[in-house]
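seq as requested:
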Amino acid sequence: MISYSAPGGSVGPHADHYDVFLLQTEGRKKWQLAERFDNTILADCELEVLDRFDAEVEWVLEPGDVLYLPPGIAHHGIALESGSTCSIGMRAPSAADLMQALGEWLAEHEGGGDRYQDPEPLDPLSAGEISATALLGLSRLIQGAVADSDQFGDFAGEFIFRFRLGQEPLADSTDLTADELNARLLKQWQLQPSPWARLCWFHLPGMRPGTVRLFAAGSKFTCSRQLAILLCQLTDAPVCIGHDSLPLSTNDLRSVRGLLGLGYLTLLPPN
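C-alpha coordinates:
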Protein backbone atom coordinates (compact mmCIF):
# COMPACT_ATOMS: atom_id res chain seq x y z
CA MET A 1 0.00 0.00 0.00
CA ILE A 2 1.23 3.51 -0.82
CA SER A 3 -0.03 6.36 1.36
CA TYR A 4 0.37 10.09 0.83
CA SER A 5 0.39 12.47 3.80
CA ALA A 6 0.33 16.23 4.15
CA PRO A 7 2.38 17.74 7.00
CA GLY A 8 0.95 16.45 10.28
CA GLY A 9 -1.00 13.69 8.55
CA SER A 10 -1.41 10.40 10.41
CA VAL A 11 -3.56 7.27 10.53
CA GLY A 12 -3.22 7.22 14.31
CA PRO A 13 -1.46 4.80 16.66
CA HIS A 14 -2.25 1.16 15.96
CA ALA A 15 -0.72 -2.32 15.85
CA ASP A 16 -0.69 -4.86 13.02
CA HIS A 17 -0.74 -8.64 13.39
CA TYR A 18 1.80 -9.30 10.65
CA ASP A 19 5.28 -8.20 9.59
CA VAL A 20 5.45 -4.76 7.96
CA PHE A 21 8.24 -2.92 6.16
CA LEU A 22 7.75 0.84 5.89
CA LEU A 23 9.69 2.40 3.00
CA GLN A 24 9.80 6.19 2.97
CA THR A 25 9.85 7.32 -0.65
CA GLU A 26 9.26 11.08 -0.36
CA GLY A 27 9.35 13.59 2.49
CA ARG A 28 10.19 12.89 6.13
CA LYS A 29 8.02 11.00 8.59
CA LYS A 30 8.35 10.50 12.35
CA TRP A 31 7.55 7.04 13.68
CA GLN A 32 6.85 6.39 17.36
CA LEU A 33 6.88 2.77 18.61
CA ALA A 34 5.87 0.91 21.74
CA GLU A 35 6.20 -2.77 22.61
CA ARG A 36 4.08 -2.49 25.77
CA PHE A 37 0.82 -0.57 25.37
CA ASP A 38 -2.86 -0.42 26.29
CA ASN A 39 -4.69 -2.20 23.46
CA THR A 40 -8.03 -0.45 24.10
CA ILE A 41 -9.43 0.67 20.74
CA LEU A 42 -10.79 4.16 20.14
CA ALA A 43 -14.59 4.13 20.21
CA ASP A 44 -16.66 5.10 17.13
CA CYS A 45 -13.76 4.65 14.74
CA GLU A 46 -13.77 2.30 11.74
CA LEU A 47 -10.01 1.80 12.04
CA GLU A 48 -8.49 -0.03 15.01
CA VAL A 49 -6.81 3.09 16.40
CA LEU A 50 -5.51 2.87 19.97
CA ASP A 51 -7.34 5.01 22.52
CA ARG A 52 -4.08 5.74 24.39
CA PHE A 53 -0.50 5.53 23.21
CA ASP A 54 2.78 6.27 24.98
CA ALA A 55 5.84 6.00 22.74
CA GLU A 56 8.90 4.12 23.95
CA VAL A 57 11.18 5.03 21.03
CA GLU A 58 10.98 7.10 17.87
CA TRP A 59 12.80 7.58 14.57
CA VAL A 60 12.55 10.02 11.69
CA LEU A 61 12.57 8.32 8.29
CA GLU A 62 13.92 10.15 5.27
CA PRO A 63 13.53 9.12 1.62
CA GLY A 64 15.15 5.70 1.13
CA ASP A 65 14.91 4.68 4.80
CA VAL A 66 13.11 1.46 5.76
CA LEU A 67 11.58 0.63 9.14
CA TYR A 68 10.74 -2.99 10.00
CA LEU A 69 7.84 -3.61 12.38
CA PRO A 70 7.35 -7.10 13.85
CA PRO A 71 3.77 -8.21 14.53
CA GLY A 72 2.14 -6.68 17.58
CA ILE A 73 4.30 -3.55 17.84
CA ALA A 74 2.24 -0.39 18.27
CA HIS A 75 3.32 2.41 15.95
CA HIS A 76 2.28 5.95 15.20
CA GLY A 77 3.46 7.69 12.03
CA ILE A 78 3.28 11.49 11.71
CA ALA A 79 4.30 13.22 8.48
CA LEU A 80 6.78 16.04 9.05
CA GLU A 81 6.56 17.05 5.40
CA SER A 82 4.34 16.21 2.45
CA GLY A 83 5.42 12.79 1.28
CA SER A 84 4.58 9.17 0.60
CA THR A 85 5.25 5.87 2.37
CA CYS A 86 5.16 2.34 0.94
CA SER A 87 3.75 -0.12 3.46
CA ILE A 88 4.83 -3.67 2.56
CA GLY A 89 2.86 -6.14 4.68
CA MET A 90 3.90 -9.79 4.93
CA ARG A 91 0.57 -11.26 6.00
CA ALA A 92 0.37 -14.77 7.36
CA PRO A 93 -2.93 -16.58 6.68
CA SER A 94 -5.74 -16.16 9.17
CA ALA A 95 -8.06 -18.92 10.38
CA ALA A 96 -10.67 -17.58 7.94
CA ASP A 97 -8.18 -17.81 5.05
CA LEU A 98 -7.36 -21.41 5.97
CA MET A 99 -10.97 -22.54 6.43
CA GLN A 100 -12.11 -20.97 3.17
CA ALA A 101 -9.20 -22.45 1.23
CA LEU A 102 -9.64 -25.88 2.85
CA GLY A 103 -13.31 -25.92 1.84
CA GLU A 104 -12.43 -25.04 -1.75
CA TRP A 105 -9.65 -27.65 -1.78
CA LEU A 106 -11.99 -30.38 -0.49
CA ALA A 107 -14.64 -29.41 -3.07
CA GLU A 108 -12.11 -29.87 -5.88
CA HIS A 109 -11.21 -33.39 -4.75
CA GLU A 110 -13.28 -36.50 -5.23
CA GLY A 111 -15.89 -36.95 -2.51
CA GLY A 112 -15.36 -33.53 -0.97
CA GLY A 113 -14.67 -35.06 2.44
CA ASP A 114 -17.11 -36.82 4.75
CA ARG A 115 -20.75 -35.73 4.87
CA TYR A 116 -22.78 -34.83 7.96
CA GLN A 117 -25.35 -37.30 9.30
CA ASP A 118 -27.77 -36.79 12.18
CA PRO A 119 -26.40 -38.78 15.13
CA GLU A 120 -29.87 -39.34 16.67
CA PRO A 121 -33.57 -39.19 15.70
CA LEU A 122 -35.12 -35.73 15.81
CA ASP A 123 -37.39 -35.01 18.76
CA PRO A 124 -40.85 -34.04 17.42
CA LEU A 125 -41.52 -32.11 20.64
CA SER A 126 -38.47 -29.86 20.07
CA ALA A 127 -39.11 -28.57 16.56
CA GLY A 128 -36.32 -26.39 15.20
CA GLU A 129 -33.80 -27.36 17.88
CA ILE A 130 -30.19 -28.05 16.95
CA SER A 131 -29.08 -30.37 19.72
CA ALA A 132 -25.72 -30.26 21.44
CA THR A 133 -25.03 -33.69 19.95
CA ALA A 134 -25.68 -32.36 16.44
CA LEU A 135 -23.40 -29.38 17.03
CA LEU A 136 -20.70 -31.77 18.24
CA GLY A 137 -21.19 -33.83 15.06
CA LEU A 138 -20.70 -30.74 12.89
CA SER A 139 -17.60 -29.80 14.84
CA ARG A 140 -16.15 -33.30 14.48
CA LEU A 141 -16.83 -33.20 10.74
CA ILE A 142 -14.63 -30.13 10.44
CA GLN A 143 -12.01 -31.58 12.78
CA GLY A 144 -11.93 -34.77 10.73
CA ALA A 145 -10.91 -32.85 7.61
CA VAL A 146 -7.92 -31.50 9.54
CA ALA A 147 -7.08 -34.66 11.52
CA ASP A 148 -6.16 -36.64 8.40
CA SER A 149 -2.47 -35.74 8.41
CA ASP A 150 -1.80 -36.94 4.87
CA GLN A 151 -4.78 -35.11 3.39
CA PHE A 152 -4.22 -31.95 5.40
CA GLY A 153 -0.50 -32.06 4.59
CA ASP A 154 -1.31 -32.02 0.87
CA PHE A 155 -3.69 -29.12 1.35
CA ALA A 156 -1.24 -27.16 3.50
CA GLY A 157 1.63 -27.65 1.05
CA GLU A 158 -0.50 -26.49 -1.87
CA PHE A 159 -2.07 -23.60 0.02
CA ILE A 160 0.80 -22.04 1.96
CA PHE A 161 3.01 -21.53 -1.05
CA ARG A 162 0.20 -20.21 -3.24
CA PHE A 163 -1.10 -17.82 -0.59
CA ARG A 164 -0.94 -14.29 -2.04
CA LEU A 165 1.34 -15.46 -4.84
CA GLY A 166 1.85 -12.50 -7.14
CA GLN A 167 3.23 -14.18 -10.27
CA GLU A 168 3.47 -17.57 -11.93
CA PRO A 169 6.72 -18.73 -13.55
CA LEU A 170 6.78 -19.20 -17.31
CA ALA A 171 6.57 -22.86 -18.26
CA ASP A 172 9.61 -24.30 -20.05
CA SER A 173 8.95 -25.71 -23.52
CA THR A 174 12.04 -27.97 -23.35
CA ASP A 175 10.98 -31.59 -22.83
CA LEU A 176 13.95 -33.71 -21.81
CA THR A 177 13.66 -37.38 -21.03
CA ALA A 178 14.89 -38.58 -17.65
CA ASP A 179 18.01 -40.05 -19.29
CA GLU A 180 18.75 -36.79 -21.18
CA LEU A 181 18.30 -34.74 -18.03
CA ASN A 182 20.51 -37.07 -16.00
CA ALA A 183 23.23 -36.94 -18.66
CA ARG A 184 23.26 -33.14 -18.59
CA LEU A 185 23.35 -33.00 -14.81
CA LEU A 186 26.28 -35.41 -14.76
CA LYS A 187 28.05 -33.05 -17.17
CA GLN A 188 27.75 -30.22 -14.62
CA TRP A 189 24.72 -28.48 -16.11
CA GLN A 190 23.31 -26.12 -13.50
CA LEU A 191 19.89 -25.49 -12.01
CA GLN A 192 18.63 -21.98 -11.33
CA PRO A 193 15.31 -21.22 -9.56
CA SER A 194 12.71 -18.89 -10.98
CA PRO A 195 12.34 -15.67 -8.94
CA TRP A 196 8.68 -16.67 -8.51
CA ALA A 197 9.44 -20.18 -7.22
CA ARG A 198 8.24 -21.04 -3.73
CA LEU A 199 9.40 -24.40 -2.46
CA CYS A 200 8.63 -26.31 0.75
CA TRP A 201 8.57 -29.94 1.84
CA PHE A 202 7.44 -32.20 4.65
CA HIS A 203 7.80 -35.80 5.82
CA LEU A 204 4.79 -37.58 7.29
CA PRO A 205 4.58 -40.75 9.39
CA GLY A 206 4.12 -43.65 7.01
CA MET A 207 6.41 -42.25 4.32
CA ARG A 208 9.64 -44.11 3.61
CA PRO A 209 12.65 -42.80 5.56
CA GLY A 210 14.47 -40.13 3.59
CA THR A 211 11.47 -39.56 1.28
CA VAL A 212 9.55 -36.30 1.43
CA ARG A 213 6.76 -34.51 -0.37
CA LEU A 214 7.97 -31.39 -2.17
CA PHE A 215 5.65 -28.53 -3.12
CA ALA A 216 6.28 -25.76 -5.62
CA ALA A 217 3.54 -23.10 -5.42
CA GLY A 218 0.82 -25.75 -5.41
CA SER A 219 2.43 -28.52 -7.47
CA LYS A 220 3.34 -31.71 -5.59
CA PHE A 221 6.35 -34.02 -6.06
CA THR A 222 7.94 -36.93 -4.20
CA CYS A 223 11.72 -36.84 -3.82
CA SER A 224 14.58 -37.39 -1.42
CA ARG A 225 14.97 -35.21 1.65
CA GLN A 226 18.46 -34.26 0.52
CA LEU A 227 17.22 -32.95 -2.84
CA ALA A 228 14.33 -31.06 -1.24
CA ILE A 229 16.66 -29.24 1.16
CA LEU A 230 19.10 -28.39 -1.62
CA LEU A 231 16.35 -26.99 -3.88
CA CYS A 232 14.83 -24.97 -1.02
CA GLN A 233 18.24 -23.43 -0.34
CA LEU A 234 18.70 -22.26 -3.93
CA THR A 235 19.13 -18.53 -4.43
CA ASP A 236 19.92 -16.61 -7.60
CA ALA A 237 23.23 -18.48 -7.98
CA PRO A 238 22.95 -21.64 -10.16
CA VAL A 239 23.99 -24.96 -8.61
CA CYS A 240 25.10 -28.34 -9.93
CA ILE A 241 23.37 -31.53 -8.77
CA GLY A 242 23.40 -35.16 -9.88
CA HIS A 243 27.10 -35.67 -9.35
CA ASP A 244 28.76 -38.13 -6.96
CA SER A 245 27.89 -36.12 -3.84
CA LEU A 246 24.17 -36.18 -4.68
CA PRO A 247 23.17 -39.09 -6.91
CA LEU A 248 19.59 -38.70 -8.11
CA SER A 249 16.96 -41.40 -7.70
CA THR A 250 14.15 -41.98 -10.17
CA ASN A 251 11.83 -39.86 -8.02
CA ASP A 252 14.44 -37.09 -7.83
CA LEU A 253 14.82 -36.99 -11.61
CA ARG A 254 11.05 -36.99 -12.03
CA SER A 255 10.74 -34.10 -9.60
CA VAL A 256 13.46 -32.04 -11.28
CA ARG A 257 11.87 -32.69 -14.69
CA GLY A 258 8.52 -31.55 -13.33
CA LEU A 259 9.97 -28.39 -11.83
CA LEU A 260 11.78 -27.62 -15.09
CA GLY A 261 8.62 -28.17 -17.11
CA LEU A 262 6.59 -25.84 -14.90
CA GLY A 263 9.25 -23.13 -15.01
CA TYR A 264 10.22 -23.26 -11.34
CA LEU A 265 13.75 -24.27 -12.37
CA THR A 266 15.89 -23.43 -15.39
CA LEU A 267 18.67 -25.69 -16.71
CA LEU A 268 21.84 -23.82 -17.67
CA PRO A 269 24.93 -25.15 -19.47
CA PRO A 270 28.20 -25.28 -17.55
CA ASN A 271 30.31 -22.12 -17.52
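Helices lie at 95-108, 132-147, 149-160, 178-186, 225-232, 250-262.
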